[in-house]
Amino acid sequence: xxxxxxxxxxxREVVLAARNVSKSYGxxxxxxxxxxxxxxxxxxxxxxxxxxxKSTLMKILSGVIQPTSGEIILDGQPVNFANxxxxxxxxxxxxxxxxxxxxxxxxxxxxxxxxxxxxPMGVDFAEEERQVRRLMEELEEEIDPLTPVEELRLGxxxxxxxxxxxxxxxxxxxxxxxxxxxxxxEVEVLFKVIRDLTARGVSIVYISxxxxxxxxxxxxxxxxxxxxxxxxxxxxxxxxxxxxRNMVGENYDLGSPPDSDKREVALSIRNLSVPDSTGxxxxxxxxxxxxxxxxxxxxxxxxxxxxxxxxxxxxxxRATGGExxxxxxxxxxxSIGERxxxxxxxxxxxxxxxxxVQTMSVGQNLSLASIRNFTRGLFTSTRAERKLIEDxxxxxxxxxxxxxxxxxxxxxxNQQKVVIGKMLATKPRVIMLDEPSRGIDIGAxxxxxxxxxxxxxxxxxxxxxxxxxxECLSIAHRIIVxxxxxxxxxxxxxxxxxxIMAASGESVAA
Amino acid sequence: MSATTxxxxxxxxxxxxxxxxxxxxxxxxxxxxxxxxxxxxxxxxVSNFLIMSSQVAIYGILSIGMLLVILxxxxxxxxxxxxxxxxxxxxxxxQGVTLDWAGVILYPxxxxxxxxxxxxGALVGALNGVLIAxxxxxxxxxxxxxxxxxxxxxxxxxxxxxxxxxxxxEALGNTGFNWLGFNRLGGIPxxxxxxxxxxxxxxxxxxxxxxxxxxxASGGNERAAELSGVPVRRVKITVYTISGALAxxxxxxLSSQLTSAGPTAGTTYELTAIAAVVIGGAALTGxxxxxRGTMLGAFVIGFxxxxxxxxxxxxxxxxxxxxxxxxxxxLMNSIQYGRGGRKS
Lengths: 510, 344
Hints:
Largest sheet of chain A: 6 strands, mixed
Strand order of the largest sheet of chain B: 1-2
Strand content of chain B: under 5%
Number of helices of chain B: 14
CATH topology of the largest domain in chain A: Rossmann fold
Oligomer: heterodimer
Radius of gyration of chain B: 21 Å
CATH class of the largest domain in chain A: Alpha Beta
Shape of chain A: globular
Order of helices and strands of chain B: HHHHEEHHEHEEHHHHEHHH
Strand order of the largest sheet of chain A: 6-9-10-3-11-12
Shape of chain B: globular
Strand content of chain A: 25-35%
């Protein structure tokens, strides 16, 4: 571990520092004696797998939680924040990984939530609106201050979060995975904003699983592994390999297309059209065949129609035209449960909202989709269920204290594995995964992809969507690029990143 | 990350506070029994416990139906009215159904009255379920509406009067209606046995059947449950149907105990049932709770108000005490489910 050295001309004034900070939850040590500096007007990026302690550290710095031991030093003085508001008053803001917006309120009301501007007639809405418009101009986003947040795309919602943090004139801005839902052009806007902010002397703490992206913006890199800081260095001294080596300490290869026996067509989508609530087509006249044993990757930007395509196949959304044929049988009229019983499973994009039941244990989540299979007469077989849970935990390598553990006690990657394990337990013929790597670390990502490759080798048809090009060029036999509801290009696994991005309508300049 | 859990211990070792918190309904019941036994020599007697239990039975049966609805993330305000409607229907059938076109008066046997009454309750419950599951009416509003409609129908049927003397007549072959309310098996009132059977069946359903798991899942996260293939609409309709049917059972027990059926019976019983579920530790947001807790909750309310009567406290004070217990229970619930904080 390298510590900041006095007199180094490259290192500017330290505004916020963590000294020997530890945090334990019962027997789980989320952080072990971490020393961490934030420099004025610079971007410090935290790297680490899920569960390495990044989010915990950020929450401590921003006053959301308190450390078990150690201290936080702000401008050379030890401080003790009782809550996030105290930290915010001292100029520290955090943008959480899971958005914390009220979807029913407008952009304006969200940005000023809890600190509404007082006027002579109650809240000064006009002034608030004016400030929001200015912020949105700064961010180069055309979001009307009066739009309800629920009508915005996920990427735009993230921009609103950022605007909210900017609106309090923070000196230190902590961003926990701000780009996970942004398109390439939105990321460019964000990075421009970050550069403006640092030029004004604002310090940024940045967390991202998108390593290449983070490297383009950061000034310092801090790497955490299992709650311990494993490395610390300025940008000039490091590269991607260095980070990955320190993060996982092992090979991070996402894999290559498995040699599987591609046989008959398992899933056939023919001329599918899916409208949104206003009747505009989100998916237009799309046809796609997936063979058993084949892995197909669907690449596209936000709003390209990937999620809608997969959710229509799963039965959540209704198509206005076209057919969905599973192993020779038309399934468009079937319910979600019937489709699962026939062997078509979906792992949804948003695991908190659509994937997990937070009030149930790890085991109950794992067995939820397949519980019909071990119901004998009226009652479920406890033994069969326990066996299924134990097998699933082992097969998808969930790190947990057991099937009875609370689902909230798992890290993001392990939660994702639970969702995948739940659907694999239904013994599907075709599995569709919507952004399976969203918000999970490299190690978990590699394990998920290895699982999918193994499934394909045994004859499972796999369809997954992604918005990271590097994930297209891993285990997929075929890469489909979607743009505005249609397939704009189709490639085999030898294609280059540039070609994929060009077909998606994305600028390659970034 | 953090644990928001009741089953994964946070720190090793025995914690008295935690034990008290988790078993709060049980300890509250023990405390109530102890205090009243101390205050009145008549409280801690077998006969008093049996009398109190047969009173609890009605609330208990209602609250099990309510538990299922609340686990599903809903609420059923109509059970008190369904209870009255079903009681009135049973009363009408016991008094004879006049068929003008055939010129006869039918006196159905008691078993037929029971089956038909439960069917009526289930039907009204199913109406709730359909409104909520298919027409997306919020449960609070849908059951509020049905609460008024059912009460109104009950009043219309009787013109506001009460059916008295439901004992039936030997000559008509429809005696035995009061068996449910008055008789005992092995010294235990039938109503208490009915409650026990309902509780055991509901407990088995929740813990051992796929339906029970679906119920918890769709109450905890409906979207995730739906995408896991859970037939969430069917679960919803079934839950409200069961709640309606159990309200009918409670209506039968009540009118049998009174051998009369009035259209204003069961007013505000739905609130008592909700209170029992909440005191039993279930979360009003759905997904958490169980039959054991709800039963304890029903007994806490029943034994508390009976105890206050026995020691001669004014009925106005009873209302105050019951309210205080409910608030305290919700407070404890939020301590139990609220600690540990949010997910990272």
